[in-house]
Specification:
The protein has 195 residues and is an alpha/beta fold. It has a single domain, classed as Dihydrofolate Reductase, subunit A (3-Layer(aba) Sandwich), CATH 3.40.430.10. It contains seven helices and eight strands, in the order βααβααββαβαβββα. The chain has helices at residues 30-33, 37-45, 53-57, 65-68, 102-113, 124-132, 183-194; strands spanning 4-11, 46-52, 75-78, 95-98, 117-121, 138-144, 164-172, 175-182. The protein has an eight-stranded mixed sheet, sandwiched between helices. The chain is globular. It starts with a strand and ends with a helix.
């Protein structure tokens, strides 16, 4: 069964976006990151991706995703209003714009992923929503050694009862990746299987 892996990159002072909502400063190593074992492993094990509309809108040309984006898999965007025109797709990369919420987007992404993982590319608001709803099996936090000083923090409004168990620490160039199992989600799943 597919795992749902929630990922975010943060600065040393804990921001996932700058004060304008941009993540550009958090990826000074993007070209090098693409060649790391960390990202290559994620690409191999990911069967589908979930993103918010905000991540889709960051691309100047939506057709850029086809053939260029790291994950050439089905991508599910949760949004209130889908675009008027669907971006260019390939035989591997397809777009689904889900208008009935993130739970539905993840459910559809799990079906599309088959036995592979669902990777959620998260901004600060997405992180909070996914964690608070108990939708993630694992959390991956990549820390890049810069300070943003202000912006949006991904864990400010996360339920304090959520527990994590560290499973791996990976050095990938300038970044450090911390990987955790989301314990509260596992406990809920075990409770449901008992009921």
């Amino acid at each position: 069964m597919a795992k749902v892996i929630l990922g975010v990159t943060i600065s040393l002072d804990g921001f996932a976006e700058d004060s304008k909502g941009s993540v550009g400063a958090l990826y000074p190593d993007l070209d090098a990151l693409r060649k790391t074992d960390l990202l290559q492993e994620s690409i191999r094990t990911t069967g589908s991706v979930v993103m918010a509309w905000k991540e889709f809108a960051m691309a100047e040309d939506p057709d850029w995703f086809a053939g260029n984006y790291e994950y050439q898999v089905p991508i599910f965007f949760f949004t209130d209003i889908p675009p008027k025109k669907c971006p260019k797709e390939t035989d591997k990369l397809t777009f689904t714009f889900v208008t009935d919420g993130i739970v539905s987007a993840i459910r559809q992404a799990k079906v599309a992923a088959g036995r592979k993982d669902v990777t959620i590319i998260g901004n600060a608001a997405t992180m909070q929503q996914v964690l608070n709803a108990g939708l993630a099996d694992e959390l991956q936090i990549d820390i890049i050694p810069i300070f943003l000083h202000k912006g949006f923090r991904p864990f400010e409004h996360v339920d304090e009862t959520i527990k994590f168990k560290k499973i791996r620490v990976v050095e990938a160039g300038e970044r450090t990746s911390l990987q955790f199992v989301v314990e509260r989600h596992r406990m809920k799943a075990m409770q449901k299987s008992v009921i």
